[in-house]
């Protein structure tokens, strides 16, 4: 019987056309995903989490696809599973089934199974869509691996089917318990919230296990398993049903089973009547009908005002009903939990939190919350549209003498009101969150501007669209799916190369609030698009009103005909007027984004890069003059977001040959360009689109001959742009990077980097020159067309701003209502310098050279130019500068500038960099950090970033590498090492453990998703995960083996030999050789392991026992397993014999290493005894995590007492 | 003010012709629309209640074009649909008040009085504070008529209101209807002949979308006077009678079957004369008896 009921349900589903629409949706979704991931859309590179090195049909890649499409499928499952029992409530057919000779199990089980199987029938289309795309003509064959049945089937077993069991059961239980559909949708919202919440807390390594458990869809559990998988793993391995995933599935299955059990227990065939309250008692003895007296006459008011009041009354009623519903309360509670947890993790970097300043809170709450609100809008739009029909009150209401707009208008107002309610709740949540964190600068104005001016308007536009969809579709379940599909599509369109907001219905452009620059130039496009989509939404609303179903619906054609016939001419004119205004606004936007400015979608951008390389690469090795000096003036006009650059390059032909033609590369955004050598040259190439110019000199430049290039160019911002808005020039905090200057010769940094993308444009993979390459060794990797240069810069800006660049301030003056600053660094520098203008508060300090410092060491002025509200972390930065100068001047040699000046720039970018004596430092990565000074594990991020950048004054500005493989080791890895050592000295080794764990995470994740083949550290090709993360680990480990002093001695020697030298420039070989020299023989192997190969470990502690000794100390016996591996460039790892010194140690209850000894490990399984004073908690191998270990969490094991 | 229906036709997308050329003129008073299930009654009622589009034809209430000027028609319309629900958690008084406001009774005092009077009239005053979810079928139906009478409608349409009511409730309901049916047009659709006999001054019989007969019930019955004959037969003989005679109806009566036939003269001696009633009119109409 159970099976018969189930098959009946499935058969009914198969007869419904919507089922086939859903199948098609899955197919199309999967098809597009794989096509896009496979590079089938030119100019679009999205890998959806799997790197371009992972085949699109690899088990891992298909697993990701299955996960996300499965999540989308939840909307459909909600309908299927919810209606499994609700259909009987809705159609009043309960009594047929409840009186039939079937058991409760037959009925519930059959219906559950029917719903489950119906949903399951849709899922093969995901695999079919993926398969079709992978073997379709659009996807490059090189991106497709061998199909294995397992790779397509495994995700079904581990993810899709368990998720379907979970969601089907949850929704089924909800609908069965409450006999309504609303709780089902609420449950789906809660599921989505759980998923987002889990995602939110993955930034912090320590909460990742929780995230893996919390996520009802299991995707964070999968991520936890695969986070350190190599490319080879991802291409071949199937996500095992083990560890966090199995745990996650088990927990959620228990939840599911409990829900089903409750639903089963509470469900009864007979208690319908009993549960329905007893009939109202009525005076049964029929009072003979009251005498037939006339009913009181009433005055009927059909005026417009009365209708308006009726509409508002209806709206209020519906809003109250919605907000007061226990299900809405459930949603709010879930959202509250979300706020509490997500808010607690206002993360910055490496587990250090930021201050909960208003814009950060708004981003955390607003960002992820938006998805939640969008789902809410979709569902409540449906609920409202169907409210009367669901209650079957529609025939009465529809025949009432109220105009149609009263009925539909009340829905609009109610849904709009709901958004106001949500936004108010969001604001309250934000303020409570701030208060809870002891932060009291609430910035109510910012809350209101963001939440009302941007979020609410955006939500309202979506509301109008969702209502429109529901009215037109006229089927609640299909309406939900269409609405959600619309949301997905508007977000996904850019992935297919359709980026412009002009056709992404209802979408507002992104914006970024900065404390320095406020909403800045994001306001204009936001307002324009709000007006644009607002007009559109208004037109949709009026059309939806005309199409509003009153009485019998009829076919869509009939409804359209009726709507036309019944809509007054004035209304049609209003719609026409709205659409005209919409088009006019669109034209205005288009004029701004595509005519005043260039609209450069990613497709075009990528194509231009490829064009650049194809057309001009031949110039790369054509000898060009070198820059010897730069005299420059930069005039900032912050109000109009413009800047004017005028300057002169002193050039010299340093090549051995005549130079008849000089090439100049300019930023593509440069306008008003004049370039002049003043020696009768002729311009033969002038490519303004790509920014490439070539001049034929009247007389070639002889070897050793000097010349000057006078240039003038301007950057301006007219109107507003589409997505890529110019954040270099803003009202406050303009930040022109070095790439704003003309480049002499061909600029290689503009080339397309990724192999997969290059292939699309028929470009062969890029190869960075090998160390020793004579051409590349003659160029440094920072400023390839210049060597050591004399710099002289005059800046001017508005009178209320400071303008800053490299060097010390020679003179400052005012003239013609503008402020001028003249900067000149001592000595020759790299032309790696930025130009900044903003309103700053300046904090000054001095670092005093210690007595007995090396010759050449002198006092250094310290200056932090910060946004007036951002004084929080300035002392940490100043401390960072001082401790860095202490350490570096003592270890590496004198500092070369008169000052260290830190300058804050808006958070449009998140980095800091080192210019000669100046450190531009993003607002986002240290100015609002909230460091807990009492927690030794809480890393002082402002201090760290400062130390890293100060270290660059040596590594990058004194010693600079040739433009070859391994270049960034000499800058970034050494800056990381230097910063680490300063931090270790300042905060102690305990803080280092956490830092190293994050670096390990970054390295392993980085290599797991690398887009290019991994190389050993000494041959790194500018990959951050290698030169920062692996660099830190490597240098820290080496210092640990051979001693900090030995490492520093080697580094000091490099500085002595290579300071301000080149061409030819040094490279990583210099470093490796210097280190090898200071490394004792027994550790010689480490140089090869750390620098020259990719070496990994799989170390594990298996057992530890402690025995208390007579002297109060403890003997801890530790059994460890050790394994050493070598990886090739795609991550294929082979075990090699181990013969290494590795730490074996004991950790106390607080996680501090109390005793550690270095042991020689030459067998896979060994046992050691460590003596410790404090009671041991855990013991194991490599307790500090210095080695690269893919499973770092099993290094320690709890100690058993004997 | 009469309601004039002229050549009204409606075909559903599925192909069912629900109304064919329906023409009727309905004067104030109770009007019974009789027809079997599926005759098109509800389609006609919904069309008159502005909730269904017609393909062709015209409906005029006085000067008001019901089909095209729906908003005006709704101002004088009271409608009790065949099937409807009520918000289960709202009280009768509150919902009626809410509906009264939507009917255009915007003055609070008047609205209160009207709601009170209607609740009293429909005998729901005692339970006015009770949630509607606790109402029995009869109470619900009475609530339905109460809301239909809000705002002095000129045209009241009640669609199969007595289906599912017990006899006592039905009588009460009829009384209520006939009270109001004195100055306004009340159209009552039903498939129960008794409903029409009890309360209607005029009637029409609708079958397969066509009006088969219309007029005053008494007149229609008079047309059959002296033509109805009845006889009690064994069940086995029934088939023969149905073949040989114009059988209007057969009814089980104490275990045996009583056949009524239509004939200008007594078919044979075994038949006895019977007094024609509305049921004979109804059945002979829908069976197409007595016509060429």
Can you tell me about this structure?
The complex is a heterodimer of chains A (1202) and B (292). Chain A contains 35 helices and 32 strands. Chain A is of the alpha+beta class and 1202 residues long. In chain A, the strands form 8 sheets. In chain A, strands 6-9-4-3-12-15-14 form a 7-stranded mixed sheet, with no helix packed on it. In chain A, a hairpin with a 5-residue loop joins strand 23 (1100-1108) and strand 24. The longest helix of chain A has 33 residues, at 404-436. Chain A starts with a helix and ends with a strand. The relative contact order of chain A is 0.06. Chain B is of the alpha/beta class. Chain B has 10 helices and 14 strands. In chain B, a hairpin with a 2-residue loop joins strand 4 and strand 5. At the A-B interface, helix 14, helix 18 and helix 23 of A face helix 2, strand 6, helix 3, helix 4 and helix 5 of B.
**Class per helix and strand makeup of chain B:** alpha/beta
Sheet of most strands of chain B: 6 strands, mixed
Spans of at least 5 consecutive residues with low confidence of chain B: none
Question: Number of helical runs of chain A?
Answer: 35
**Main sheet properties of chain A:** 7 strands, mixed
**Shape type of chain A:** globular
Radius of gyration of chain B (CA) equals 21 Å
Using DSSP, what is the number of strands of chain A? 32
Order of helices and strands of chain B: EEEHEEHEHHHEHEHEEHEHEEEH
- pLDDT averaged over residues of chain A: 88
* Structural class assignment of chain A: alpha+beta
Radius of gyration of chain A: 34 Å
Strand segment count of chain B: 14
| Percent of residues in β-strands of chain B | 25-35%
The oligomeric state of the chains shown is: heterodimer
User: What percent of residues of chain A adopt helix (DSSP H or I)?
Assistant: 40-55%
The overall pLDDT of chain B, averaged over residues, is 87
Low-confidence sequence ranges of chain A: 285-290
The helical percent of chain B reads 25-40%
Strand arrangement, major sheet of chain B:
6-7-8-3-9-10
């Amino acid at each position: 019987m159970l099976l018969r009921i189930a098959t009946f349900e499935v058969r009914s589903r198969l007869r419904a056309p919507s089922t086939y629409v859903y199948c098609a949706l899955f197919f199309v979704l999967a098809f597009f995903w794989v096509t896009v991931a496979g590079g089938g859309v030119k100019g679009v590179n999205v890998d959806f989490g799997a790197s371009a090195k992972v085949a699109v049909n690899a088990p891992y890649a298909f697993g990701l696809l299955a996960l996300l499409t499965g999540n989308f499928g939840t909307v459909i499952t909600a309908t299927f599973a919810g209606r499994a029992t609700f259909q009987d409530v809705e159609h009043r057919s309960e009594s047929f089934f409840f009186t039939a000779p079937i058991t409760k199990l037959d009925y519930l089980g059959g219906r559950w199974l029917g719903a489950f199987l119906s949903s399951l029938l849709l899922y093969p289309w995901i695999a079919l869509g993926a398969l079709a795309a992978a073997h379709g003509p659009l996807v490059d064959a090189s991106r497709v691996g061998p199909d294995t049945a397992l790779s397509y089937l495994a995700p079904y077993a581990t993810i899709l089917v368990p998720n379907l069991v979970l969601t089907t059961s949850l929704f089924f239980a909800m609908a069965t318990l409450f006999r309504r559909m609303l709780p089902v949708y609420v449950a789906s919202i809660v599921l989505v919230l759980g998923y987002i919440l889990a995602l939110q807390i993955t930034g912090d390594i320590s909460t990742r296990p929780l995230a893996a458990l919390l996520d009802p869809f299991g995707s964070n559990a999968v991520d936890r398993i695969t986070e350190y998988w190599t490319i080879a793993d991802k291409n071949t391995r199937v996500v095992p049903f083990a560890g966090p995933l199995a745990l996650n599935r088990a927990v959620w299955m228990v939840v599911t089973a409990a829900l089903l059990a409750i639903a089963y227990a509470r469900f009864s065939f007979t208690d319908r009547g009993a549960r329905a309250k007893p009939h109202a008692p009525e005076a049964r003895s029929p009072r003979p009908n009251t005498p037939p007296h006339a009913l009181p006459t009433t005055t009927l008011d059909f005026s417009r005002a009365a209708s308006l009041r009726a509409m508002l009354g209806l709206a209020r009623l519906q809003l109250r009903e919605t907000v007061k519903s226990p299900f809405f309360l459930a949603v709010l509670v879930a959202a509250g939990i979300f706020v509490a947890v997500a808010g607690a993790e206002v993360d910055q970097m490496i587990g250090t939190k930021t201050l909960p300043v208003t814009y950060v809170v708004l981003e955390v709450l607003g960002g992820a919350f938006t998805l939640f609100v969008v789902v809410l809008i979709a569902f409540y739009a449906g609920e409202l549209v169907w409210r009367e029909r669901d209650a079957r009150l529609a025939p009465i209401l529809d025949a009432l003498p109220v105009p149609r707009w009263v009925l539909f208008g009340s829905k609009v107002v109610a849904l709009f009101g709901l958004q106001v309610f949500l936004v108010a709740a969001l604001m309250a949540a934000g303020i409570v969150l701030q208060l809870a964190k002891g932060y009291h600068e609430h910035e109510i104005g910012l809350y209101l501007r963001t939440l009302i001016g941007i979020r609410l308007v955006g939500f309202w536009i979506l509301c109008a669209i969702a209502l429109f969809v529901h009215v037109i579709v006229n089927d609640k379940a299909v309406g939900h799916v269409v609405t959600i599909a619309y949301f997905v599509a508007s977000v996904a369109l850019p992935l297919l190369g359709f980026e412009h907001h002009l056709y992404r219905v209802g979408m507002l452009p992104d914006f970024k609030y900065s404390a320095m620059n406020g909403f800045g130039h994001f306001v204009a496009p936001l307002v324009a698009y709000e007006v644009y989509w607002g007009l559109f939404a208004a037109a949709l609303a009026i059309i939806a009103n005309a199409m509003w179903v009153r009485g019998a619906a009829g076919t869509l054609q009939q409804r359209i005909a009726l709507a036309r016939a019944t809509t007054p001419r004035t209304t049609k004119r209003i719609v026409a007027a709205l659409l005209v205004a919409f088009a006019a606004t669109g034209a205005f936007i288009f004029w701004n984004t595509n005519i005043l400015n260039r609209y450069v979608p990613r497709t075009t951008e990528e194509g231009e890069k490829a064009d650049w390389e194809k057309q001009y690469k031949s110039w790369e090795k054509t000898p060009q003059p070198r820059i010897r000096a730069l005299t420059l003036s930069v005039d900032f006009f912050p109000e109009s977001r413009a800047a004017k650059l005028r300057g002169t390059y002193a050039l010299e032909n340093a090549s051995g040959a005549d130079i008849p033609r000089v090439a100049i590369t300019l930023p593509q955004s440069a306008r008003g360009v004049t370039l002049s050598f003043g020696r009768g040259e002729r311009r033969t190439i002038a490519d303004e689109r790509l920014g490439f110019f070539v001049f034929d000199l009247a007389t070639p430049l002889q070897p050793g001959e000097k010349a000057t290039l006078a240039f003038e160019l301007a950057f301006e911002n007219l109107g507003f742009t589409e997505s890529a808005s110019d954040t270099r020039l803003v009202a406050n905090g303009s930040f022109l990077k070095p790439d704003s200057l003309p480049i002499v010769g061909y600029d290689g940094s503009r080339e397309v980097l990724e192999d997969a993308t290059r292939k699309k444009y028929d470009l062969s993979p890029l190869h960075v020159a090998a160390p020793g390459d004579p051409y590349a060794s003659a160029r440094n990797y920072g400023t390839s067309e210049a060597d050591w240069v004399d710099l002289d810069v005059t800046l001017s800006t508005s009178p209320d701003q400071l303008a800053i660049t490299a060097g010390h301030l020679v003179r400052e003056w005012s003239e013609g209502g503008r402020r001028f600053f003249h900067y000149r660094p001592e000595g020759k520098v790299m032309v790696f310098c930025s130009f900044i203008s903003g309103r700053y508060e300046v904090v000054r300090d001095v670092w005093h050279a210690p007595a007995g410092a090396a010759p050449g060491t002198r006092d250094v002025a310290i200056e932090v130019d910060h946004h007036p509200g951002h004084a929080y972390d300035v002392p940490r930065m100043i401390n960072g500068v001082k401790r860095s100068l202490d350490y570096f001047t003592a270890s590496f040699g004198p500092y070369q500038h008169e000052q260290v000046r830190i300058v804050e720039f808006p958070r449009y970018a998140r980095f800091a960099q080192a210019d000669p004596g100046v450190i531009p430092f993003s607002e986002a990565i240290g100015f609002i950090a909230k460091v807990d000074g009492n927690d030794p594990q809480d890393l002082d991020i402002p201090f760290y970033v400062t130390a890293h950048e100060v270290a660059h004054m040596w590594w990058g500005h004194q010693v600079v590498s040739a433009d070859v493989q391994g270049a960034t080791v000499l800058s970034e890895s050494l800056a990381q090492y230097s910063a680490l050592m300063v931090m270790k000295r300042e905060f102690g080794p305990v803080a280092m453990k956490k830092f190293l764990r994050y670096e390990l995470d970054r390295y392993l994740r980085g290599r797991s998703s690398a887009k290019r083949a991994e190389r050993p550290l000494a041959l790194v090709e500018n990959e951050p995960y290698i030169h920062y993360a692996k660099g830190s680990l490597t240098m820290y480990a080496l210092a640990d083996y051979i001693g900090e002093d030995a490492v520093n001695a080697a580094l000091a020697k490099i500085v002595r030999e290579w300071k301000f030298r080149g061409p030819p420039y040094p490279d990583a070989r210099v470093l490796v050789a210097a280190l090898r020299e200071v490394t004792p023989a027994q550790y010689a192997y480490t140089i090869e392991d750390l620098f020259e190969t990719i070496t990994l470990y799989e170390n594990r502690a298996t057992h530890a026992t402690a025995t208390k000794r007579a002297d109060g100390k403890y003997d801890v016996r530790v059994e460890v397993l050790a394994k050493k591996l070598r990886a090739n460039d795609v991550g294929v790892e082979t075990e090699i014999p181990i013969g290494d010194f590795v730490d074996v140690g004991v950790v106390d209850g607080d996680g501090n290493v109390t005793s550690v000894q270095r042991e020689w490990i030459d067998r896979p399984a060994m046992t050691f005894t460590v003596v410790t004073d404090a009671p041991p908690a855990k013991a194991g191998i490599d307790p500090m995590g210095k080695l690269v270990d893919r499973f770092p969490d099993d290094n320690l094991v709890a100690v058993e007492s004997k | 003010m009469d309601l004039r229906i002229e050549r009204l036709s409606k075909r559903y997308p599925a192909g069912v012709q629900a109304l064919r050329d329906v023409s009727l003129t309905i004067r104030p008073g109770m009007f019974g629309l009789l027809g079997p299930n599926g005759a098109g009654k509800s389609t006609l009622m919904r069309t008159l209640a502005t909730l269904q589009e017609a393909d062709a034809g015209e409906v005029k209430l006085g000067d008001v074009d019901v089909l095209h000027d729906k908003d005006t028609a709704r101002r004088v319309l009271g409608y009790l649909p065949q099937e409807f629900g009520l918000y289960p958690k709202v009280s009768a008084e509150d919902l009626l008040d809410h509906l009264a406001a939507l009917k255009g009774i915007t003055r609070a005092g008047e609205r209160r009085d009207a709601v009170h009077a209607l609740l009293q009239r429909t005998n729901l005053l005692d339970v006015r504070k009770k949630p509607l979810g606790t109402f029995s079928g009869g109470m619900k139906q009475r609530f339905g008529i109460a809301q239909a009478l809000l705002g002095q409608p000129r045209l009241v349409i009640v669609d199969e209101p007595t289906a599912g009511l017990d006899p006592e409730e039905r009588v009460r309901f009829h009384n209520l209807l006939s009270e109001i049916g004195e100055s306004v047009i009340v159209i009552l659709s039903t498939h129960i002949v008794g409903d029409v006999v009890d309360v209607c001054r005029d009637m029409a019989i609708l079958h397969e979308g066509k009006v088969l007969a219309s007029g005053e019930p008494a007149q229609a019955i008079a047309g059959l006077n002296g033509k109805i004959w009845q006889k009690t037969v064994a069940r086995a003989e029934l088939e023969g009678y149905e073949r040989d005679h114009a059988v209007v109806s057969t009814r089980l009566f104490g275990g045996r079957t009583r056949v009524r036939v239509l004939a200008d003269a007594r078919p044979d001696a075994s038949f006895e004369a019977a007094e024609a009633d509305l049921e004979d009119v109804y059945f002979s109409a829908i069976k197409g008896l007595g016509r060429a």
